[in-house]
Amino acid sequence: MDAPVLFEKKGKTAYVILNRPEHNNAINLNMRKALCDAWEEIEKNQDIFSVILTGGEKVFSAGQDLTELSAFREKEPFAELPLNNLETFGQNVKKPVIAAISGHCLGSGFLLTLVCSDVRIASETALFGMPEVKVGVPPAFGIPAILSRHFPPALTAELLLFGNTIDAHTAYRIGFVNEVVPIKEMLLKAEQYAHQVNEMSSLIVGNIKDVLRKVTAPDPMAIAYSNAMCMLGRHSEDYVEGPRAFKEKRKPVWKGR
């Protein structure tokens, strides 16, 4: 079985490549474990100055593996999936991360780019969204608070309440992505950013990143309230029904409780 995340180092740059193409890079337990291993290696390796995160040219990530989630919910209706936290999604990575995003970047995949990356290069095919509401999954990890730090209120509401997507050019206009490029130029552009930062002091760059993360962090009270509402949603029949319906390839039957 292929590794769910490919990790390699070229010069001063580490490449973290999501590698479940047959499942549109849906994030499951094995991928979460592999991401944790990658972040650990990046942090302890002093020869790594930058990180390029990508899912390849076809798709970045379709989000959470709902088949895994449905099976887990049957046994543990209210517990969190193992290693499903902001640390796994790269919240504490201290080195600059350049995300090269193509195709669907949804749900947990979208969260990965929100939490982990500092610079985002999107191909013209990139689509961003939080479709969890369509399958009855409440946004976890304070996603509403995190998302509202990057997007205007009206667009945040559209993404979360309706599960709609936005294209790369819209993401560029509001400042979420740095550049939109043809798909064949995406990785090259990310490497140009990496090469630039590799020539700088890793100490100074790391300090600047730390400051930026702190001054742009969401309000802790907003995070706490968001998480509390998430837990209310998890104690519902709809929360079990949504992923189950997805697994069974049928429309969910919502009960509002």
TrEMBL record:
<protein>
    <recommendedName>
        <fullName>Enoyl-CoA hydratase/isomerase family protein</fullName>
    </recommendedName>
</protein>
<dbReference type="InterPro" id="IPR001753">
    <property type="entry name" value="Enoyl-CoA_hydra/iso"/>
</dbReference>
<dbReference type="GO" id="GO:0006635">
    <property type="term" value="P:fatty acid beta-oxidation"/>
</dbReference>
<keyword id="KW-0456">Lyase</keyword>
<dbReference type="GO" id="GO:0016829">
    <property type="term" value="F:lyase activity"/>
</dbReference>
<comment type="similarity">
    <text>Belongs to the enoyl-CoA hydratase/isomerase family.</text>
</comment>
<dbReference type="Pfam" id="PF00378">
    <property type="entry name" value="ECH_1"/>
</dbReference>
<dbReference type="InterPro" id="IPR029045">
    <property type="entry name" value="ClpP/crotonase-like_dom_sf"/>
</dbReference>
<dbReference type="InterPro" id="IPR014748">
    <property type="entry name" value="Enoyl-CoA_hydra_C"/>
</dbReference>
